[in-house]
Amino acid sequence: MQIDIQARGFDLTDGIREHTKKRLGFAIDWAQDDVREIKIRLSDVNGPRGGEDKRCLIQIPMIGKSSIVIEDVESDLYLAIDKAIHRMERVLAKRLERAREVPHETPRKNQALPTEHRDEEQEQFVQTSH
Length: 130
Fold this sequence. Notes:
CATH topology: Double Stranded RNA Binding Domain
Strand order of the largest sheet: 1-2-3-4
Shape: elongated
Number of strands: 4
CATH architecture: 2-Layer Sandwich
Distance between the termini: 57 Å
Helix content: 25-40%
Strand content: 15-25%
CATH superfamily: Ribosome hibernation promotion factor-like
Structural class: alpha+beta
């Protein structure tokens, strides 16, 4: 899995990078077969003015489906990262669960059952009616 972490408006420190990778590892270790790439964009929205302006944007391109995009803004960058990754984990789990569900077809009244479900009487009827 490819993880691309970039910072805008400040320097990406080793501490922030390692924290982000560690949290991602815990959150998506179970989905490594389904996720090939994750893009994380960290930014300081208001610059030096302060306030709730540390943003964590996560993008996960999904093959054959729309991408997952999660954003969180907090006054603390580590908190924004943690909250965004937590939400990403829940959204990813739901998306993959839905994708794995197989629609079950029920036979209609007059529809013949598949061969493996026919009993001998139905088999004889099918053979004699041709």
